[in-house]
Every structure is written in structure tokens, then in C-alpha cells.
Amino acid sequence: MEITSVQNKLIKETTKLHQKKYRDQFGHFLVEGYHLYEEARTVGNVVQVFTTDHAIVGEDVIYVNEAVLQKLSDAKNPQGVVTVCQKVDAQEPSDQILLLDHIQDPGNLGTLLRSALAFGFTTIVLDNTVDVYNDKVLRSTQGAIFKLNFIHSSILEFMEKYNWILYYGTAMTGVPIQAFSTMPPFGIILGNEGAGVNEHILRKTTKNITIPMIQTESLNVGVAGSIIMYELQKKLS
């Protein structure tokens, strides 16, 4: 069977998943392209696959024409496959945690998620942060989305619940990262692109850290967070 009409009920319902309210309602999200399809298949959370490629087979595969694929896609040039995936329930936190306070830029979030996976920060706490299932975030994570544990929570409430974990904020007046070391379990808190980490959170941390710089006052949060996670993982290795 091949769906050839963009007015098809299933296609119209699936397209709604580009909107956060429907992703939250149905517990599903969309990924595009062969790489993300394969990553989703590997972890086993594929719900349905829409594709123009008849080499892709399976009970959950539905073939569509180019016009329908374009309707389902958020990209100008669809890669041939759009996959509906099941959101995964949050698990207990790991020993290295990244806590994000009001991060709003999808590109920054995508960068942080890829770096978090690369450097062992496999639990991500999201406090009023851009949706991890946003199309732009998903594209920039390159599959990291399927290997991380996401917990949606107020950072202050999370810190109170898991009060045996060491929490380190990021602030201009903090301890230089080169002089800082710790041991798991611990969490690194990164803040909003403009405002930084909320002052109420910084007052509750074990210590705050910073990246010394020569000719600029601040770094993009995606870059800064990646440097901090790399430096800490290097010291743990």
C-alpha cells in the first residue's frame, strides 16, 4: 500500500507532531533521515515509518510518495524517511548530570546534548528549556537523543530530592575550571543564554565554576558547557 494524498487522515494526524502540544499529548515525536531512523530502530522505540524507499521493510513501514513525504517533513529536501518514535520515560539519574536552566536556543541545546553524551553526562535535567523533541534540536543531536535520560523538573526541586549529589553552578565569579575537580555523583548547571543560572539556584550549589577567558567576557552556552564537561571528564579518566 502507498499513501499518495496529503489529505490522508493518518498523514494529517502525524504532521501534527511538529507541534509540541501534540508531541506531549500523544507521547510521540518525529525524526527525519536514514541515520536517525537507524538510531531509533537500534534502541527499539520506532512506532511507524513513512518512506519513499521500498528497500526499507517491516510491519511498521508505510510507503508514501514524494508529495506526502514533503508534507511530513520539516526539511526543504527530505531524506526519504520520516520516523514516528515513542518518547521514553525518565529513569533514575546517572552519576554525571547536566542541568539546564531556561536554555532557549535549539542549536545550543543540540550541541549540549551531543557533548553530554560524548563526555558521560547521560542524565539531562530540563527546567523550562526548549523542547528536546523540537525539529531543530533533533537534527543537531545526530542521534544522541536516543541515548540520554531526560528528566523534566525544576532544578531546585531536583536538587532537594537528590540532595546527596554535588551540584556546581556556572558563574563569572566561580572557581576557574582548570583548578577545579570533583568525583561522581555530581551535576553541572548551565543557565539561560542571556541571564545565566538563576541566582536562587547559585545560592544552593556546592560551588560555582567559570572558564577563564583572555579577550571576551562570555562564551555561547553550548560551547561553554562542552568545554566544562570535557575538562571534568578528562580529570575523571
TrEMBL record:
<dbReference type="InterPro" id="IPR029064">
    <property type="entry name" value="Ribosomal_eL30-like_sf"/>
</dbReference>
<comment type="similarity">
    <text>Belongs to the class IV-like SAM-binding methyltransferase superfamily. RNA methyltransferase TrmH family.</text>
</comment>
<dbReference type="GO" id="GO:0006396">
    <property type="term" value="P:RNA processing"/>
</dbReference>
<protein>
    <submittedName>
        <fullName>RNA methyltransferase</fullName>
    </submittedName>
</protein>
<dbReference type="Pfam" id="PF00588">
    <property type="entry name" value="SpoU_methylase"/>
</dbReference>
<dbReference type="GO" id="GO:0008173">
    <property type="term" value="F:RNA methyltransferase activity"/>
</dbReference>
<dbReference type="InterPro" id="IPR029026">
    <property type="entry name" value="tRNA_m1G_MTases_N"/>
</dbReference>
<keyword id="KW-0808">Transferase</keyword>
<dbReference type="Pfam" id="PF22435">
    <property type="entry name" value="MRM3-like_sub_bind"/>
</dbReference>
<dbReference type="InterPro" id="IPR013123">
    <property type="entry name" value="SpoU_subst-bd"/>
</dbReference>
<dbReference type="InterPro" id="IPR001537">
    <property type="entry name" value="SpoU_MeTrfase"/>
</dbReference>
<keyword id="KW-0489">Methyltransferase</keyword>
<dbReference type="InterPro" id="IPR053888">
    <property type="entry name" value="MRM3-like_sub_bind"/>
</dbReference>
<feature type="domain" description="RNA 2-O ribose methyltransferase substrate binding">
    <location>
        <begin position="30"/>
        <end position="91"/>
    </location>
</feature>
<dbReference type="GO" id="GO:0005737">
    <property type="term" value="C:cytoplasm"/>
</dbReference>
<dbReference type="InterPro" id="IPR029028">
    <property type="entry name" value="Alpha/beta_knot_MTases"/>
</dbReference>
<dbReference type="GO" id="GO:0003723">
    <property type="term" value="F:RNA binding"/>
</dbReference>
<dbReference type="GO" id="GO:0032259">
    <property type="term" value="P:methylation"/>
</dbReference>
<dbReference type="InterPro" id="IPR051259">
    <property type="entry name" value="rRNA_Methyltransferase"/>
</dbReference>
